[in-house]
Amino acid sequence: MKTGLFITFEGIDGAGKSTQLSNAIDYVKGLGRPFIETREPGGTELGERIRSLILDGKNKISAEAETMMMFSARLEHLNSVIKPALDDGKIILCDRFTDATYAYQGFGSGVDLSLIENLERIVHNGLQPDRTFFFDLDTQTANARIAGRELDRFESEAIDFHQRVREGYLTRAKAHSQRFSIINSDRPADEIKGDLLNELAMLCS
Ligand code: TMP
Asked: In tens digits, what is the pLDDT along the chain, a chain of 205 residues?
């Protein structure tokens, strides 16, 4: 029986997701409710190994194989981390989930969306996040923010890839508007934090 709360955080690279995720973690810690923070790809030993393989730009992997690797990692993550935590009534703060596969592999790399839908159906077995925060920022600003960092496989893609990823997220948000909160991230970090914490307060009440 599912009693916890499953919250996911999404955004194009450089949109400020990680900063806001830390704010969410601090907030939930302050509530004194049991929670876990986790991430995708990752969250389990296998998931972290898959993450290293995928994010290393030196490995040549087709976008379809990459998609299946994401879902292999996700299956382990769901069965050994997410579902048990939900059953224990915990709040789960998860850095990216299946919307990222639609946005990056589907819209960004052109993987057939029906492949992603089929894998989603098999792997999720009906489970979806209760809420997804999408930190939305235009690609020029986001790219400028990550310039100078050491870039992984996806961060080093050209700007038109990130543009397609953003469109992918916006398409998902429109199709699943009950679940998504789009947070305009072209504002001072404190304003963004204010909006996020207001929504979290309602969700966790
Ligand atoms: P991040 O943890 O810094 O957000 O990095 C994870 C990267 O992996 C990010 O560029 C998005 C990418 N990614 C996918 O391409 N597909 C997926 O399904 C997931 C979960 C992440």
From this structure: 558 999 999 999 999 999 999 999 999 999 999 999 999 999 999 999 999 999 999 999 999 999 999 999 999 999 999 999 999 999 999 999 999 999 999 999 999 999 999 999 999 999 999 999 999 999 999 999 999 899 999 999 999 999 999 999 999 999 999 999 999 999 999 999 999 999 999 999 8
Whole-number Å distance between alpha carbons of 63 and 77 = 21
The b/e string for 128-155 (b: 16+ C-beta within 10 A; e otherwise) is: ebebbbbbbbebeebbeebeeeeeebbb
Among residues 161, 112, 109, the alpha carbon closest in space to that of 139 is found at 161
| HEC secondary structure over 89-101 | CCEEEEECCHHHH
> Cβ(96) to ligand 1 under 6 A?
yes
Looking from the CA of residue 101, the nearest atom of ligand 1 is: 18
Is 104 close to ligand 1, i.e. is its CB under 6 Å away? yes
Residue 33 Cα to ligand 1 midpoint, Å, equals: 28
3-state secondary structure of 171: helix
Give the separation between CA 66 and CA 60, rounded to whole angstroms: 10
